Amino acid sequence: MNALLLLPLFLVTAPQTTPPQRVSTKRPAAQTKTIVGVITALDATKNTITLQPDNGTVAIAASIAPDAAFTKKNEIAKLTDFALKDHVSARLSIRPDKPAEAVLKAMKDADTASETKKTATAIYTGTVVTSSLTNLDAKDKDGKTTRFRISEKTIFIKGGKPAKPSDFAPDAPVAVIARSSPSGNLLASHIADTAAAVEQTKNDALSTWTGQVTEKKDGKLTLKRDDGATRTLQIAETSSALFDKLTPGRKVHLHLIKGETDKDGNRTTDKFTNAR
Question: Which SS3 state, helix, strand or coil, does residue 22 take?
């Protein structure tokens, strides 16, 4: 008999199986939300709090983070300084998949939060109460004291020259540009002795300046900015042909190259457009 006839007439193959799909175990990232409302429950022993938002949404119960920051009447505070029915602004960390497990990161009374927001969008002027490496306390014309946090990035200017915190003595005039930090405190970015000086110092760091060209000579031009400051700029070598067309007296928008200065510390401009 032919050996080939002994072979199976057909082959049976194993059924194909679909590998199980991997289920992601990654938790959704927590979201930070600021809630303005009233304290309806507070337990300092268990470190828990419940807030009823002003917008009428459902009350939020939260645990309190060990490093939570508290501010009341613009001063550093603690949880026990707050009570039921206090109107507050609270910063919460909430996971979308477990909203019942909210964590309170920072809280301040609502009046202080409102004042902080206003101060963070305008130039503050007043007189120095105290000045240190970490804080500057200043008093406005109504006698209200505001605390500004100081960091290594805070820029101090006095008499038009770089300064340090100790140069601002008690009762000296002071102007501050600040922003609200993640903890809800006011973090000073620029401090000077006048409002005009602090605004000019802030504008020095911008990438665009607007003003009138008063002089152009030896690869440099002098600009009197709209904020009143007069600044000298180096013209980029690659843009010299473009700036040959620019004559003193014209009002322009200048683009500045980030971080590039000449040996005298003058910033460099590489392009301009006409301004009205």
Answer: coil
Residue-wise pLDDT tens digits, 196-225 = 999 999 899 899 999 999 999 999 999 999
| Residue type present at position 78 | K
- Residue 50: closest CA among 102, 113, 114, 109: 102
Total domain count, the chain: 3
Domain boundary among 90, 110, 130: 110
Rounded Cα gap, residues 166 and 180, in angstroms: 24
pTM of the predicted model over 0.85: no
| Structural domain boundaries enclosing 199 | 120-203
* Amino acid in position 234: Q
Asked if the structure places residue 18 within a domain, the reply is no
Confidence of residue 186 (pLDDT cuts 50, 70, 90): confident
Residues in contact with 225: Cβ distance below 8 Å, sequence separation at least 6, in sequence order: 200, 203, 209, 210, 211, 231
Instruction: Identify the DSSP state of 4.
Output: G
CA distance 150 to 147: 10
Question: Which of 147, 174, 203 is where one domain is finished?
Answer: 203
CA–CA gap between residue 209 and residue 215 (Å, rounded): 16
Question: How many CA atoms does the CB half-sphere of 127 hold within 13 Å?
Answer: 6
Structural domain includes residue 17: no
3-state class of 5 per DSSP?
helix
